[in-house]
Amino acid sequence: MPNPPLTEAVYYILLSLTEPLHGYGIMQKAEQLSSGRVRLAAGTLYGALNTLLEKGWIAAGAQEGRQDIFY
User: What is the rounded CA–CA span in Å between residue 1 and residue 66?
Assistant: First the structure.
């Protein structure tokens, strides 16, 4: 079964991950890339990240002592 179209939030999350980032960094980058149009709430962000992790589209790791780095 094909994947459904990306939501705007998921699009900007994926676009933000050109480098490893933590959750707050993804929020900031998505807002910057969308010229302020997309402001991700924590629930939206982490729900989307969990779905993307389950699908294998992104990976989680640790960097500089942080556990919530996504790439």
Answer: 36
The pLDDT of residue 5: 84
Is residue 64 scored above 70 in pLDDT? Answer: no
The first and second tokens of residue 70, run together, are 């996504």
pTM for the predicted model, two decimal places: 0.84
Looking up tokens 């402001």 gives 39
The ranges assigned to domains in the chain are 8-70
Tell me the CATH number for domain 8-70.
Answer: 1.10.10
69, 20 Cβ separation under 8 angstroms: yes
Which amino acid type is present at position 61?
G
Classify 35 as helix, strand or coil. coil
